[in-house]
Amino acid sequence: MLTWIYILFSHEPGVGFAAIGSARATQKPAVACVTYGAGGLNMLNPVACAYAEKTPLIVISGGPGEVEKARAEFLHHTVKDFNSQLKVYEEVTVEAVLLDNPGLHT
User: Fold this and answer.
1) CA–CA gap between residue 81 and residue 58 (Å, rounded)
2) Residue 14, CA distances (Å) to 9, 19, 34, 47, 72 in order
């Protein structure tokens, strides 16, 4: 049986460290949801901590849509390019993926 606990924090590192605490307490993976760019990058310290300590943490981050990418718009909180956040996460996670075709994953 799955039990969902939804807790809202105002700063991403708090989200990440709370999720780590939940994973440690329950011995089950925890999920943290954040926004693209500043939100995702603010999660790096807790994500790196979880990775180093082998704590099961799943991070779901939003991102720009295909239309925005095609227009090559420099969106708020974009760092270098649209894949920068993904590349950074690849360094501090077991797996980092980009789900960019919802129809493919159904």
Assistant:
1) 23
2) 6, 8, 11, 11, 32
Give the tens place of pLDDT for each residue, 27-73.
999 999 998 888 899 999 999 999 999 999 999 998 877 777 777 66
Would you say residue 106 has pLDDT above 60? Answer: no
Instruction: Tell me 10's DSSP state.
Output: S
Q: For residue 53, what are its two tokens? A: 């300590």
Using alpha carbons only, what angle is made at residue 14 by residues 39 and 57, rounded to the nearest 5 degrees?
Answer: 80
Interior/surface letters 90-106, b for 16+ CB within 10 angstroms, e for the rest: eebbeebeeeeeeeeee
